[in-house]
């Protein structure tokens, strides 16, 4: 089955408010929604049974509704993450 599209790309961030300010205020993305979640479904998806996240969804201005690609920012409140080595040669960066 071929891929028909990609709805969103998710990034874990250390500070959701600072990240929203960067993507919205400096890069011009539109903040679509922002919420906190510790729902059982989300905890299952992220693999942390005690997970608590702050989440924001942004998109390029002018993208129509749910059809456009979205950037999902995730701040893990529980468990708190740790910064890794951000060099581009490392897998995942």
Summarize the structure.
This protein is of the alpha+beta class and 93 residues long. It contains two helices and four strands; from the N terminus they run βαβαββ.
Describe the 3D structure:
This protein is of the alpha+beta class. The chain has two helices and four strands, in the order E-H-E-H-E-E. It has a four-stranded mixed sheet, covered by helices on one side. The model has no long low-confidence stretch (mean pLDDT 89).
Please supply descriptive tags for the structure shown above.
93 residues
What is the percentage of strand-forming residues? 25-35%
Mean pLDDT: 89
Overall outline: globular
As laid out across the biggest beta sheet, the strand order is 1-4-3-2
Unreliable parts: none
Give the distance, in angstroms, between the N- and C-terminal Cα atoms. 28 Å
Break the fold down into its secondary structure elements and pairings.
Blueprint: E1 8-12, H1 16-26, E2 30-37, H2 40-46, E3 52-59, E4 70-78
Parallel strand pairs: 1-4
Antiparallel strand pairs: 2-3, 3-4
């Amino acid at each position: 089955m071929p891929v028909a599209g990609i709805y969103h790309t998710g990034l874990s961030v250390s500070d959701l408010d600072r990240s929203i300010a960067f993507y919205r205020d400096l890069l011009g993305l539109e903040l679509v929604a922002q919420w906190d979640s510790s729902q059982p479904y989300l905890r299952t998806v992220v693999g942390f049974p005690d997970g608590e996240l702050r989440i924001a969804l942004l998109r390029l201005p002018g993208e129509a509704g749910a059809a456009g690609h979205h950037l999902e920012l995730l701040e893990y409140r529980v468990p708190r993450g740790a910064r890794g080595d951000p060099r581009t040669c490392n897998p995942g960066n």
